[in-house]
Amino acid sequence: MKNMLRLGAALTALSIGAGASFAGPAVVDGPGVNPECFAPWDEDTKHFQWEGREGPYRVAIVNGFVGNTWRIQMIKTAKAYAEDPEIADKLADLKVVSTGTDAPAQLGAIEDFINQGYDAIVTIAVSPDGFDRVIRLADREDVVLVPFDNVLDTDAVMQVNEDQLTMGRTWAQFVMEELKAKGVTSGKILEVRGLPGNSVDRDRSIGINDVIAADSGDWEMVSVVGNWDDGTTQKVVADAIAVHGEFAAVAGQGGSNGVIQALKDAGHPWVPVAGESENGFRKAIAENSEDGLKGISIGQSPGLVAVAMKAAISALEGNVMPQLISVPLPVATYQDLEDGKNYWSDLPDNFFTVNEFPPCGVNISGPAIMSQDESDTN
């Protein structure tokens, strides 16, 4: 009987220990640290706290798709930020890998870094779900996992993002207002979607289509997939013009330089265009707005990686953090653009213009970013 009692006690202790090891961060009351930078998504956002540990820390960036300029600039930005004096002394090691669009490959890379003993892993998820296993593993090993940009459909990890649904709605509202100002109440609207299968593309598209569907005009939506890539976007927009003729407006998630080039090549009249924050897109708006290119540029900044890295380090230091961190949308329309301020005539067209987050103390210069390379680190 005594042996049975001892065995029962041991099993109970093991069960409690196992449960604790999978607990992950504690859910605590807010507010969190530095709310000007790490702003909660809304009033219902819960807060996390990990047990603080001594630095410097080992951090990995696990990117997925790398086949467009945004992802390339994001990787360069992460490397440039790691050299910033604000953070350099807090990093013992930074590894960067890109795994492509295959979810199992990305999950495998994350697991590998967890098993190697990295303190934090920052990732752009290739899918909004399917990460339960690595979340549990990260919690068990006390690793801070921070998805950003393409985030997960879960509240079990700390995440950093801009409001993609609001971004899509803002694009569409701008387009509708510009068309009404021209007296246009019907026609075809071209939607240029991003990389299929992730939360950013999904949420932006929902926002765009919700606004246009609610409008009283007679609109026909035509959708093409540009993968947020200039070259791909230029081709699919050119094909759409060849098949459908003239569009009343374009709502593009990215690859905005490709939209502009396709319109130019086809001799398509300038129309209201919603797009991302590519430098060339903003140049084109500034140069052609009086001729009808009424544009809005909202930047999903590659610099989000720096905010995610800063959040991961803050969590490792034991600070209280929001589970979902909201980064404000940097909006510029044809009425706001100013050379040297929010676009640069002397920088490449494919440079993404928004890389400053003053409340976070993140301000990474264009030259510092462009001096890096996008290759994986060994």
UniProtKB/TrEMBL annotation:
<dbReference type="Pfam" id="PF13407">
    <property type="entry name" value="Peripla_BP_4"/>
</dbReference>
<dbReference type="GO" id="GO:0030246">
    <property type="term" value="F:carbohydrate binding"/>
</dbReference>
<dbReference type="InterPro" id="IPR028082">
    <property type="entry name" value="Peripla_BP_I"/>
</dbReference>
<dbReference type="InterPro" id="IPR025997">
    <property type="entry name" value="SBP_2_dom"/>
</dbReference>
<feature type="signal peptide">
    <location>
        <begin position="1"/>
        <end position="23"/>
    </location>
</feature>
<feature type="domain" description="Periplasmic binding protein">
    <location>
        <begin position="59"/>
        <end position="318"/>
    </location>
</feature>
<protein>
    <submittedName>
        <fullName>Substrate-binding domain-containing protein</fullName>
    </submittedName>
</protein>
<comment type="similarity">
    <text>Belongs to the bacterial solute-binding protein 2 family.</text>
</comment>
<keyword id="KW-0732">Signal</keyword>
<dbReference type="GO" id="GO:0030313">
    <property type="term" value="C:cell envelope"/>
</dbReference>
